[in-house]
Design goal:
238 residues, globular
Length: 238
């Protein structure tokens, strides 16, 4: 007979986790199901020290948690995180776009990306938007585990922002651009596309190219956008 778990607190975020029934390491199937009827996978790993994230993997919702998260707290966190994940999915399907205007949203995105691509080995102390970074898209101070993202990245496609964040997260593991550093990014399928996007953005900005449409040519009349002054957006990652 399975052990009866005590009811979870209304909001266990206000109490320390780790006091209760230990959960199994690795992947386990939760009793909670997603809206599509598929069981939810709970992924516990000792490498994840903080934070909880949820993402889709092979059609199933996966909730990545620290190894110390108890089964009691899991009863709160699994449906909570799956609900957020499904809400994001519905918004995207309806044509909406997630925005990452706040530093807190950037931090949550970093934890999600670290769980998905870096085994939760990269956990920044802080992630923030900055407006004084005009020579680089993103930067990382390894010693303090801080990441700064240029405000010029705002409004770019989400998969480009993800690449910029992943690049800086990988620097928390490897401070240089060694072969080991680039190997950390190999699993991000849109890496080369994101690099090309950023190179194109740098090229266009350096030449004050604005208002260009998506067509290669157009026989109809058009109006050239005026040139504007100002510093060029960043063109590299560090």
């Amino acid at each position: 007979m399975s052990k009866q778990l005590s009811p979870p607190a209304k909001d266990p975020r206000r109490t320390p986790i780790g006091s209760g029934t230990p959960g199994p390491l690795g992947d386990s199937v939760s009793g909670h199901r997603a809206a599509n009827g598929a069981p939810v996978v709970v992924r516990r790993t000792r490498r994840r020290k903080n934070g909880i994230s949820a993402f889709w993997e092979a059609g199933r919702a996966v909730v990545a948690v620290p190894s110390r998260l108890t089964l009691e707290d899991e009863q709160y966190w699994v449906p909570h995180m799956v609900s957020r994940l499904e809400g994001d999915t519905r918004a995207k399907a309806a044509g909406g776009r997630r925005t990452f205007e706040s530093d807190g949203a950037l931090m949550r995105r970093c934890l999600d990306l670290s769980a998905r691509y870096l085994g939760s080995r990269a956990v920044p102390a802080s992630v923030r938007w900055v407006t004084n970074q005009n020579g680089r898209w993103g930067s990382c101070t390894h010693a303090h585990r801080t990441i700064r993202i240029s405000h010029h990245v705002k409004g770019m496609p989400e998969w480009v922002l993800d690449y910029v964040l992943l690049h800086e997260l990988a620097h928390l593991i490897h401070p240089n651009h060694s072969a080991q550093f680039w190997a950390e990014l190999d699993s991000y399928a849109l890496q080369e596309r994101a690099k090309a996007f950023l190179e194109g953005a740098s090229f266009a900005s350096a030449r004050n190219i604005q208002g260009m449409g998506s067509d290669m040519d157009d026989d109809g009349p058009g109006t050239a956008a005026p040139e504007t002054a100002g510093g060029a957006p960043p063109g590299q990652l560090f």
